[in-house]
User: Which sequence fits this backbone?
């Protein structure tokens, strides 16, 4: 009987039955979702109930973090050999298809779970202080809670379609939060741009799903990983296509060349949003996706090379733009694009753990940098607000000397700066070093990786430079805010500085989760060991040859020297000449101007794609084809023809019913006979 | 539930009652005072909906055959009978219709200010026509209902429509008539050909389906006639230009029904008649490729033209062209997933586009303009409206977790394996859909609240919320738990695929490749 086919196919690929806390992992999603509903209702009905919003908004995050921690403890105690699958309900069914709404708990998803809920909690707490005065406070927390719920669906989904719910959901929340102050057209534009550019990437994820379905008849991660190696040839056209389309999604979500342009614009949203969504979590989803499907990418060395190449290029290109930005958040935005490039360089090289490692440390120090910049903007805004000045509160040329007024923020941001610059032994040093070493190691067999390594090194120099420039312009030298305004500058309240302290600590010692063997103190390679079950299959296909001995020490020495040079240059060159305020500054000229205008990429896209498409749709398709051709010539033309015929026909009008019936019948019979013959 | 339904003989009378009740309801409606008209209409449509719900349990989901069938000779001499029946596909279409009808009455509550009795009488008549189209199993009867549905719609647009209503109504009528007259000829010719072979003149669906091979050389012509009638109704590019005009001029309920239900008659016609009758023609490379190209063109073209519309209703109208393109793609790719997806899009589009037209209508009742540029920043003054508009727009964009995604995903996934290039191009529709809807959302809800007239807009009333709530619930439910609906339509989809691919061929397509030798 044909309908036996309706039964779902048996699962292939190993998995573990859920026990203990893991069974309750869905609570981590449910808590923020409830928070969204409550805060959403409050936003519509009682927006003034800000205390309730704060309690619910941060409470659900802490609860989700507690769930994450419990699951982590369980996994640490009893590390499962295969992912734990928690099936909630059967979602999309068809012949031979039963897509479960299911979560996958394994070593990788737990790392993401901890980062998202942990860093997320800190940022929620910070937001209580930062957004308190905003009229849309309840709406803000509703969106932020919803974001976390979707982000957790993304990292927990056990198959591509469920991941895709989270994938698009975080994009939606990003859109809503970028356009949060939608009364300003620029913000609404930025939100829309983020969603649309991401959709281009989503197209890639969709097509990758279709290809996978028709090749292996499953969209479950464990089943894909089990079936693909035996089904598709290594580096064959199909596996390359699948991975390239997946990577297109990553390029959109994680803001890589050529789809990175939405992320700098996304800074239009509130600053904690930039910290949470556009630095620590959502934008790293692309890196997660590659790590999650590491077997597929390892089976497609060609794609992996593209991934590494795009990553290295993005790291370098975005860092160069960061050199000449004046808006403090824009510097950090391009820095994020650049650091994401490093992560892709890592996973493209086959160093999946290094990629995840950098994802985690970056979440610490970049969240800290963004929140710190939030404190700065908060202070600047208050100062300008108090004096009714309309200067730009985000332009670093209007800052300077803030160290005196905000010592905590300065100290903590300095830690993050040293961490991102790669100064030993801060967290960023270890993760970045591991990426560069892996790239160099692969360069011994594949020469092009030496180029990628060189690009990564050059980007590291720029990173140290632009970060120190940011610190110097903001905190050092003389204050340029204005004589009256200066009196209103002050440190942020503790509810904002508190989370910064925690992040500062993590940025400082975060490297401990994966110390290299050469480091005198242990434990070594914790994350390597932890993620081993997830990436083992891929690592076998695409082994990474880490340099050892003298080469290793030379690489470390080089990297540290470069960081030091960049930091010193950034400090000295920035403060060498007096900095004019944004108001008085002359326009940049020459290449500086090209950098300031971000290589004019936005303008080029607009002129080459957006405008022509809209004009084509309006002039050619709508006015031309629709109204001109089809309606004008076709419909109304035949109406004219009918009128002409009608005039002839009217001559036949006798007014006698019988005559008409006869004519009709003759006609009908004739028609049928002709057709019938 | 099934036992209860059996105890009241539900299966025996339900289809006839659903067809008769609206017409019977017209009588008290016309006799009562004008101000009572809408209450009577609401009562009738509510009863109709409640009665129809039982169908969910009556239609079994294993065989995919027509059920609850009954047949009574009507014009015996010509082999015409009053014959009805229902399967998974028509079940969903009937439920969609009966669900939307009370909402349409509620949505017209204040909008229709003149000739109320006539208006609601037309709405009720329309129900009979629409349900008749979906349950008729006699082709002549089907044709009668097809025409019955046309006339009330013509009047609804022509009398209660906007400024340019006459042009729109006549255009709607002529476009549809042009197709349906050819279809009548085709129905007659098919019945005669079959009669010539079997010796019985009959318009019975099953009889014709079993013997449609008798049409032989005529088949391409007959298929063409059916296909044209349905293509205009869908509408497929380039027969779509009646749609924007009709939508813009129609009153809210007219637009809702047009988009949610009437367009589905076209795709339903392909699934039920045109393709199963003439599978060899439909499956021929020329026809398949032509239809695929038109479907893909519809998806992309509809979306691009929607993007540049200054009028909200036109924008939604062109978005329908794009969405129905997905349905056509799924139908012509003819895999179980793609057909199931196509039917899901038919349902999902009914909910979300219906909801979108309701919302646009609510805006129009307040400001009396459909120009997008007349709005801006209104999220500040009408937050509930904006929230609902956002949810509905996102469902239309195909955000996973809402209903639009499930259908589109299945269509594209199912089509990709057989027509990767067309499907690849069609998939770009998801980008353009986001483009036109987000742009419209921005210009209506976001940006600066800079027009005086918008500052005093009132948020949705209780009645308006009552209209929207069932639709929103449906949108979320079908997005998160579409399984019951998918299971209901799966056998019918399976049968359709078998009929196109000729039995075993269908199975090759749905069987998975060999397990890797490990």
Assistant:
């Amino acid at each position: 009987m044909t309908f036996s086919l309706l039964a779902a196919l048996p699962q292939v690929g190993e998995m573990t039955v859920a026990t203990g806390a893991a069974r309750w992992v869905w609570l981590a999603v449910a808590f923020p979702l409830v928070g969204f509903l409550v805060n959403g209702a409050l936003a519509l009905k009682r927006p003034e109930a800000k205390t309730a919003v704060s309690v619910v908004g941060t409470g659900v995050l802490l609860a989700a973090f507690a769930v994450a921690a419990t699951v982590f403890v369980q996994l640490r105690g009893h590390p499962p050999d295969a992912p734990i699958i928690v099936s909630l309900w059967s979602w999309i069914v068809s012949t031979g298809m039963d897509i479960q709404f299911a979560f996958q708990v394994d070593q990788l998803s737990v790392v993401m779970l901890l980062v998202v809920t942990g860093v997320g909690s800190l940022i929620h707490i910070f937001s209580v202080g930062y957004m308190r005065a905003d009229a849309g406070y309840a709406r803000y927390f509703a969106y932020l809670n919803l974001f976390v719920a979707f982000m957790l669906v993304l990292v927990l989904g056990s198959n591509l379609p469920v991941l895709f719910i989270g994938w698009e959901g975080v994009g939606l929340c990003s859109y809503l939060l970028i356009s949060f102050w939608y009364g300003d057209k620029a913000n609404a534009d930025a939100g829309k741009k983020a969603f649309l550019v991401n959709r281009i990437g989503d197209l890639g994820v969709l097509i990758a799903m279709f290809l996978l379905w028709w090749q292996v008849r499953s969209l479950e991660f464990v089943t894909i990983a089990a079936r693909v190696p035996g089904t598709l040839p290594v580096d064959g056209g199909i596996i390359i296509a699948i991975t390239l389309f997946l990577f297109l999604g990553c390029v959109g979500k994680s803001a890589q060349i050529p789809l990175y342009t939405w992320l700098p614009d996304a800074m239009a949203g509130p600053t904690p949003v930039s910290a949470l969504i556009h630095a620590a979590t959502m934008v790293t989803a692309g890196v997660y996706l590659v790590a999650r499907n590491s077997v597929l990418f390892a089976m497609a060395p060609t794609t992996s090379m593209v991934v590494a190449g795009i990553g290295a290029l993005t790291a370098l290109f975005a860092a160069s733009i960061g050199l000449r930005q004046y808006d403090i958040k824009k510097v950090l935005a391009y820095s994020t694009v650049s650091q994401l490039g490093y992560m892709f360089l890592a996973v493209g090289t086959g160093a999946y753990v290094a990629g995840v490692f950098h994802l985690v440390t970056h979440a610490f120090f970049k969240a800290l940098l963004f929140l710190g910049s939030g404190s700065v903007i908060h202070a600047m805004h208050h100062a300008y607000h108090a004096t009714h000045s309309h200067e730009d509160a985000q332009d670093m040329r209007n800052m300077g000397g803030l160290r005196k007024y905000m010592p905590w923020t300065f100290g903590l941001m300095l830690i993050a700066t040293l961490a991102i610059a790669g100064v030993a032994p801060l967290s960023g040093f270890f993760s970045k070093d591991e990426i560069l070493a892996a790239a160099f190691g692969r360069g011994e067999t594949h020469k092009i990786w030496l180029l990628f390594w060189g690009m990564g090194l050059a980007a590291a120099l720029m990173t140290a430079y632009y970060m120190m420039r940011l610190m110097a312009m903001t905190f050092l030298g003389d204050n340029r805010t204005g004589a009256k305004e200066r009196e209103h500058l002050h440190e942020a309240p503790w509810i904002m500085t508190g989370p910064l302290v925690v992040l500062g600590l993590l940025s400082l010692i975060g490297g401990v989760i994966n110390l290299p063997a050469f480091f005198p103190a242990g434990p070594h390679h914790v994350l390597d060991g932890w993620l081993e079950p997830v990436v083992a299959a891929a690592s076998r296909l695409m082994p990474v040859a880490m340099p050892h001995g003298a080469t290793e020490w030379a690489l470390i020495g080089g990297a540290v020297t470069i960081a030091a040079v960049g930091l010193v240059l950034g400090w000295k060159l920035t403060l060498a000449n007096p900095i004019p305020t944004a108001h008085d500054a002359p326009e940049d000229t020459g290449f500086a101007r090209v950098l300031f205008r971000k290589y004019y990429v936005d303008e080029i896209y607009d002129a080459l794609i957006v405008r022509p498409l809209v004009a084509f749709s309006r002039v050619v398709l709508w006015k031309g084809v629709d109204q001109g051709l089809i309606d004008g010539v076709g419909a109304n033309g035949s109406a004219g023809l009918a009128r002409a015929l009608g005039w002839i026909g009217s001559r036949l009008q006798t007014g006698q019913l019988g005559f008409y019936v006869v004519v009709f019948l003759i006609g009908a019979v004739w028609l049928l006979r002709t057709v019938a013959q | 539930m099934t036992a209860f339904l059996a105890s009241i003989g539900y299966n025996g009378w339900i289809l006839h009652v659903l067809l008769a009740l609206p017409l019977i309801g017209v009588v008290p409606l016309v006799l009562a005072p004008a101000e009572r008209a809408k209450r009577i209409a609401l009562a009738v449509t509510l009863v109709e909906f409640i009665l129809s719900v039982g169908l969910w349990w009556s239609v079994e989901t294993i065989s995919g055959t027509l059920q609850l069938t009954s047949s009574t000779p009507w014009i015996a001499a010509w082999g015409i009978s009053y014959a009805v029946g229902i399967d998974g596909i028509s079940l969903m279409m009937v439920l969609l219709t009966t669900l939307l009808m009370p909402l349409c009455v509620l949505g017209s509550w204040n909008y229709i200010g003149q000739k109320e009795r006539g208006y609601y009488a037309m709405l009720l008549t329309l129900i009979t026509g629409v349900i008749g189209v979906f349950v008729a199993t006699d082709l002549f009867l089907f044709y009668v209902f097809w025409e019955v549905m046309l006339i009330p719609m013509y009047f609804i647009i022509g009398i209660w429509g906007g400024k340019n209503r006459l042009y729109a109504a006549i255009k709607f009528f002529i476009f549809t008539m042009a197709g349906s007259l050819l279809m009548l000829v085709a129905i007659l010719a098919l019945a005669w050909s079959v009669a010539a072979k079997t010796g019985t003149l009959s318009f019975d669906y099953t009889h014709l389906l079993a013997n449609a091979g008798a049409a032989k050389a005529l088949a391409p012509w007959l298929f063409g006639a059916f296909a044209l009638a349905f293509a205009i109704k869908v509408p497929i590019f380039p027969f779509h230009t009646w749609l924007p005009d009709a939508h813009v001029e129609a009153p809210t309920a007219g637009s809702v029904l047009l988009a949610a239900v009437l367009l589905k008659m076209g795709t339903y016609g392909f699934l039920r008649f045109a393709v199963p009758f003439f599978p060899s023609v439909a499956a021929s490379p020329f026809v398949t490729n032509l239809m695929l190209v038109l479907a893909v063109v519809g998806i992309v073209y509809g979306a691009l033209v929607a993007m540049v519309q200054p009028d909200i209703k036109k924008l939604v109208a062109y978005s329908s062209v794009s969405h129905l393109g997905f349905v056509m793609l799924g139908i012509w790719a003819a895999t179980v997933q793609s057909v199931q997806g196509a039917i899901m899009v038919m349902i999902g589009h009914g909910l979300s586009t219906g909801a979108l037209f309701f919302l646009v209508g609510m805006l129009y009742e307040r400001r009396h303009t459909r120009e997008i540029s007349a709005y801006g920043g209104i999220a500040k003054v009408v937050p509930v409206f904006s929230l609902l508009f956002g949810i509905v727009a996102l469902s239309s964009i195909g955000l996973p977790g809402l209903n639009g995604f499930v259908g589109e995903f299945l269509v594209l996934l199912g089509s990709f394996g057989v027509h990767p290039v067309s499907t690849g191009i069609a998939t770009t529709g998801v980008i353009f859909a986001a483009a036109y809807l987000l742009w419209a959302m921005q210009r209506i809800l976001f940006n600066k609240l800079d027009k005086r007239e918008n500052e005093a807009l009132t948020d949705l009333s209780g009645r308006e919320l009552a209209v929207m709530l069932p639709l929103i619930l449906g949108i979320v439910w079908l997005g998160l738990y579409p399984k019951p609906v998918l299971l209901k339509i799966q056998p019918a989809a399976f049968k359709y695929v078998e009929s196109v691919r000729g039995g075993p061929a269908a199975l090759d397509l749905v069987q998975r490749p060999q397990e890797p030798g490990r």
Notes: The CA atoms of residues 587 and 593 of chain A lie 8 Å apart. Strands of chain A lie at 16-17, 84-94, 97-105. Chain A touches chain B through 73 residues (CB under 8 Å).
